[in-house]
Amino acid sequence: MKILFILNDASYGSEKVYNALQLAMKLPQEHAAAEIRVFLMADAVTAGLPEPVNTAGVL
Q1: Is 6 left (phi over 0), alpha (psi -120 to 50) or beta?
Q2: Are 15 and 9 in contact (CB under 8 A)?
Q3: HSE-up of residue 50 (Cα within 13 Å, Cβ side)
């Protein structure tokens, strides 16, 4: 089974991106044959950075 997650929300301010990434990491444990891909676009790209982004002063 192939699954693609397309994330387009900021990684700060809500837990949508966090929850989607948790699900993407959990699915292969439950379904070994699952092929998971995650596509980060727009504000969601910051979720893929190794260090948290300082959002102080961002509106």
Answers
A1: beta
A2: no
A3: 0
- Closest Cα to residue 28, out of 58, 3, 56? 3
Q: How confident is the model at residue 55 (pLDDT cuts 50, 70, 90)?
A: low
7 dihedral zone (left: phi>0; alpha: psi -120 to 50; beta): beta
Domain of residue 36: give its range: 6-48
| pLDDT tens per residue, range 14-50 | 889 989 999 999 999 999 999 999 999 998 888 888 8
Total of domains in the chain = 1
Residue 12 lies in a domain: yes
Residue with tokens 């979720």: 47
Residue that wins the pLDDT comparison between 11 and 30: 30
